[in-house]
Amino acid sequence: MLASVLLIDDEEPIRKLLSRLIGLEGFDIRQAVSLTDARKQLKTFDPEIILCDVRLPDGSGVDFVQEAKANHPHTEIILLTAYGNLPDGITAIKNGAFDYIVKGDDNNRIIPLLHRAVEKNALSVRVRQLEKQIGKKYSFDGIIGKSAGLLQAVDLAKKVASTDTTVLLLGETGTGKEVFAQAIHYTSHRSKRNFVAVNCAAFSKELLENELFGHKAGSYTGATKDQKGLFEEADKGTLFLDEIGEMQPDLQSKLLRVLETGEFLRIGDTRPVSVDVRIIAATHRNLKEEIDAGRFRADLFYRLSVFQIQIPALHDRGDDIRLLADFFAQQSALKIGKKISGIDEAFYKILQTYPWKGNIRELKNIMERAVILTSDEKITISALPADMSPSESPSISNSYDLQSAEKSHISLVLEHTKGNKTEAARLLNIGLTTLYRKMEEYKLK
Description:
Layout: E1 4-8, H1 12-24, E2 28-32, H2 35-42, E3 49-53, E4 55-56, E5 59-60, H3 61-71, E6 76-81, H4 86-95, E7 99-102, H5 107-137, H6 148-161, E8 167-170, H7 177-187, E9 195-199, H8 205-213, H9 230-233, E10 238-242, H10 249-261, E11 263-264, E12 273-274, E13 278-283, H11 287-292, H12 298-304, E14 307-310, H13 320-336, E15 342-343, H14 345-353, H15 359-373, E16 378-379, H16 402-416, H17 421-428, H18 432-441
Parallel strand pairs: 1-2, 1-3, 3-6, 6-7, 8-13, 8-14, 9-10, 10-13, 15-16
Antiparallel strand pairs: 4-5, 11-12
Helix pairs in contact: 3-4, 6-7, 13-15, 16-17, 17-18
């Protein structure tokens, strides 16, 4: 069956003709003789399409469109009329009808129209599924861990999410500050609008100013047309300013003005632009020390730090390391199409005593590497990097010299990347030139 259709028409010959025509095309067709009959059926039936006559004994199909869309927002409604009445057609479309056709004259349009309605309905379903996936992916449920420090941070973030308050996320690099920022945005009333993220440390002062505020055509060499900045892209949504502590002081003053007035000037422009943007900022630096050193404006700090949330480092999260390791292992296994049944207890113990200077980001990379190197279904300490392995680890035992172990390891990674040397170099954390040199040394293809 293609899709379900509810046909509402009080004329029996028309119902029979259309039902046969539509049924032969593979649609699941049901009939109603009036709006009262249709309402009764719609209590237990949610069709993809409603095909409804305009003039019915107990009401107008044009008026019924609004009622039906209110109760079945994803159902497409096509109106049928014996009279070509343009005002009715306009009203029907405004009320949410998919289309409006004349019976008899437009019978040849019905089947193609039904197929287009099915396509639109399928697209709406896909959009809703993606929205649910995005909501789940970026919700607080996606933040993994049960440690006291993490739960306290999540609780604070949940409380501030429903407001428009500026938030300052504090914590070491790699602790997941952007994950918190996304969860706050997608739980807020701004969730349908853009979440725009920018790393302030990734740009020079001039480039960052251009990225944030945009420019007017002719403002500098190469500026051939007006360009919106990220503040405008994030209008009615959220702008995440990562590594805010790296922003230059003179640019900080321009940011402060936006926070205070909701207005800014594009580079080279004299007319202010107004925006409604929620700011979430993050830094691994101690901003009070930066203020004392003259590198960060005190007034901007107090404007940003209305609501501070400290994200704990991974080494302070105890058993969360085990939960995260399991999650990243299964995530990596799914990505590369490998089955992983579990992780050896000795592997967990090493993870829990490791200092994790790179925090969650480092753990994720190590688990991805471990999944790639695991030949059996269970991850063991042989899949750990050399600097994490205990001296008795099989991966560096006396039965293998260093060159043999390195050759074997490079071969495994190249096999995983199907010969993609750029990806292999990334996973090995070495330069591409170094990889080529070692491949030549070990006679690897």
